Amino acid sequence: MSPPFFSWPAVRVAVIGAGLMGREVASAFGRWFALLECGVRPELIGVCDVNPDALAWFRGIPGVRYFETDPTALLKHEDIDVVYVAVPHHLHESIYLEVLRAGKDLLAEKPFGIDLASARRIRDEAARLGRFVRVSSEFPFLPGAQRALAYAREDRLGRPIEARSAFLHSSDLDSQKPINWKRQSRYCGEAGVMNDLGMHVTHLPLRLGWSPTRIYSRLQRLHTERPDGKGGVAASDTWDNATVLCSATIQNEIVPLTLEMKRLAPGETNTWIFELLGTDGGVRFSTKEPKTLWTFQRGQEQVWSKTDLGFGTAFKTITGGIFEPGFPDILQQMWAAFLAERAGLLGWRLGCVTPDEAVAQHELWQAALISQREARAVEVSEVSP
Ligand SMILES: NC(=O)c1ccc[n+]([C@@H]2O[C@H](COP(=O)([O-])OP(=O)(O)OC[C@H]3O[C@@H](n4cnc5c(N)ncnc54)[C@H](O)[C@@H]3O)[C@@H](O)[C@H]2O)c1
After folding, report:
1. Per-residue pLDDT tens over the stretch 284-333
2. Residue nearest to atom 20 of ligand 1 (CA)
3. Residue 18 and residue 282: Cα distance in Å, rounded?
4. What residues does ligand 1 touch, defined as CB less than 6 Å away?
5. Residue 146 in contact with residue 385, Cβ under 8 Å?
6. Please, which residues have CB within 8 angstroms of residue 99's CB and are 6 or more apart in sequence?
7. Which residue lies with its CA nearest to atom 31 of ligand 1?
8. Centre of ligand 1 from the C-alpha of residue 19, in Å
9. What's the rounded Cα separation, in Å, for the pair 306 and 136?
10. Which long-range contacts (CB under 8 A, 24 or more apart) does 71-79 make?
């Protein structure tokens, strides 16, 4: 029997920005036959990068027929349906708008424009043109995150107490690590680490409708200069760490929601954390323990239970149920969600971040920047229309 994959209609995809993420996408598409559910299948047919060397790796990928160094040239190919764009943040708006105006749908990389004004322009143009647009955020597609999301939607908390969503790196602890574009405001954006890691921490809170209304932030710039890679030093002027304390509405109560995005978090390589606590129940999931879901129950005793998770992804695959998923699996799941939603086949499953959610996220970071500058709590309504 053929896998269902072969009967699914094809969607022709191109990638702009053939770096780390572009290659991961090609890999996820290359084993699409692992999926037993989705209903559509991507075909990678084009790739574009200003650096011709970055294109070389793609020459070995079956089916790729367009190799361009200019996005405008790539977008002239009429048989491309969807474009994935993974370029530095200062280029998001111009390239995203060009993609949309070329009549293509878009899976955008975070942060969806360099700032709030940029995000609004992209969202509004996508709506005007009627294009299908979503934004990348993979971690909520891990089985543990999906279980935590399901728990948060149930009525098991008692009175909600607080929630935390965090994404932590330690990549910048070393002050001698050379500068790159992500550490420079003109390329990364004034919001710095919030632009870089913020989509990962807001996807579930915003999808759950927790909508923060008031923000107090503490932003840290820990290393202000770095080697420039040419024997000199260069200014490192982005925020490295952000702790954003929000007032959010969870199950009709206003409670603290802490959003943490950090590049200098000792001991954390790439840790995504989601935690929700109430008087009777609670849930905690972290990629630090990728097989483990913690749930809390208050009875005569207080008990944190540990559930060993398997391969419980939203889109079923051929992979054995007891195996452990990793980043390549959730990237594929995220793409399955994007393509299935575009085809009207998502059903009950979690979808990718919407343009409205991406704009709402930028509103939070705009408020966080004001909070840092003026050392006060900021109403999100001060920056939203
Ligand atoms: N979703 C995730 O988990 C994840 C992880 C890493 C990065 N990202 C995001 O992906 C995007 C790219 O980050 P990265 O780490 O891959 O950066 P990178 O610097 O490694 O790669 C960017 C690529 O874009 C190319 N490029 C630059 N200008 C271009 C242009 N005008 N046209 C075409 N190509 C151009 C560069 O040559 C480079 O190959 C950013 O938005 C970043 O935030 C997302």
Report:
1. 999 999 999 999 999 999 999 999 999 999 999 999 999 999 999 999 99
2. 19
3. 41
4. 16-21, 48-51, 54, 71, 86-89, 91, 109-110, 136, 138, 196
5. no
6. 16, 71, 75, 83, 85, 106
7. 50
8. 6
9. 29
10. 71/16, 71/95, 71/98, 71/99, 72/98, 73/48, 74/14, 74/16, 74/46, 74/47, 74/48, 75/99, 75/102, 75/104, 76/102, 77/14, 77/45, 77/46, 79/12, 79/45
Side chain identity, residue 308: D
Look up residue 120 and give its amino acid. R
Ligand 1 atom 39: residue of nearest CA: 19
The answer to pTM > 0.85 is yes
CA-nearest of 45, 57, 46 to 19 is 57
Q: For residue 42, how far is its CA from the centre of ligand 1 (angstroms)?
A: 21
Give strand ranges (E) for 49-157: 66-68, 82-85, 105-108, 133-135
125's CB contacts (< 8 A; 6+ apart) are 97, 100, 101
Examine the pLDDT at 1 and tell me if it is beyond 60. no
pLDDT at residue number 171:
87
Measured by CA distance, the residue closest to atom 4 of ligand 1 is 21
Q: How does the average pLDDT of the chain come out, rounded?
A: 96
Rounded to the nearest whole angstrom, what is the distance from the C-alpha of residue 154 to the centroid of ligand 1? 37
| 3-state helix, strand and coil shares in percent for the chain, rounded to the nearest 5 | 35, 25, 40
Question: Whose structure tokens read 């921490």?
Answer: 201
Question: 5-57, pLDDT tens digit by residue?
Answer: 889 999 999 999 999 999 999 999 999 999 999 999 999 999 999 999 999 99
User: What is the CA 40 to chain-centroid distance, rounded?
Assistant: 22
Q: Which of 15, 16, 21 to mutate to test the pocket of ligand 1 (most atoms within 8 A of CB)?
A: 21
Q: Indicate the residue type of 235.
A: A
| pLDDT tens digits for range 71-115 | 999 999 999 999 999 999 999 999 999 999 999 999 999 999 999
Are 47 and 14 in contact by the 8 Å Cβ rule? The answer is yes
Q: Are 367 and 380 in contact (CB under 8 A)?
A: yes
**Tokens of residue 39, six digits:** 């209903």
pLDDT confidence bin for 127, thresholds 50/70/90 = very high
